[in-house]
Amino acid sequence: MKSMQVIVFVVAVVCAHSVSAKLQCKLPPVDIPKDWLTMVEPCTKKMREQVQEELRAALTYMAMGAHFSRDTINRPGFAKMFFESASEEREHAIKIIGYLLMRGELTSEVSKLINNPAPLNESWETGVDALKDALKLEAHVTRKIRDIITACENPTGDGNGFNDYHLVDYLSGDFLEEQYKGQRDLATKISVLGKMMDNYGALGEFLFDKKLLNGELF
User: Fold this and answer.
1) DSSP-assigned letter for residue 119
2) Whole-angstrom Cα distance, residue 79 to residue 96?
3) For residue range 149-205, what is the model confidence (pLDDT) as tens digits?
4) CA-CA-CA-CA torsion for 66, 192, 56, 119, nearest 10 degrees?
5) How many other CB atoms are there within 10 angstroms of residue 135's CB atom?
6) CA separation for the pair 49, 147 (Å, rounded)
7) How far apart, in whole angstroms, are the C-alpha atoms of residue 93 and residue 70?
């Protein structure tokens, strides 16, 4: 009796699936005009690559935050700062994806944007070492953003060049200014912490960390 019930159940499921498949509405692909797609391939390629750069930076900052959160390190101020930086870099990646969507340049390439980027490092001897790596990372990201601007701004006298004014203005205003301010902030932190450690050794890093945790620096 039970085996008969199982057979009936299976048949019912198969029939229901078959009916559901027949009732599905299959629409032909929409023919959308392409005139509004104005980004050139070198520019689009650089923007897609930048998503990966921002995600790699986010994971590196996350690794820094995790490192300084360890019980054997216990620098909650550094951890807080680096976790916040990881969130900022992730937001940058989302903003770039959003821009590509707005310009119609992200249709079937989503899976190629995120390729499991690995952090650039996983441990640091001191807070100064981590800050120096963070500054190098920010300088690298800044250079990549400037490379996008160069790729998107290529005028020629014969009229065959191109200049994506909107994207260049967007990157220059929203991204570069934040990058330059962040680099200056890191350079200042490196200078202050270096002096504190020269004068007080490990105690200097401990006091610097407490200032970071309480938001009392700069």
Assistant:
1) P
2) 26
3) 999 987 655 556 688 999 999 999 999 999 999 999 999 999 999 999 999 999 999
4) -50
5) 18
6) 11
7) 27
**pTM (2 d.p.):** 0.82
| Residues 105, 44 contacting (CB under 8 angstroms) | yes
Q: Which amino acid is at 13?
A: V
Tell which residue, 114, 105, 95, has the closest CA to residue 40. Answer: 105
**pLDDT for 207:** 96
- Which amino acid belongs to residue 153? E
Q: Helices in 41-163 by DSSP H: which ranges?
A: 41-69, 76-102, 110-113, 127-152
Terminal Cα distance for the chain, rounded: 78
Main-chain dihedrals φ then ψ at residue 117, nearest 5 degrees: -65, 140
Q: CA nearest 211: which of 127, 135, 129?
A: 127
User: Do the Cβ atoms of 187 and 135 come closer than 8 Å?
Assistant: yes
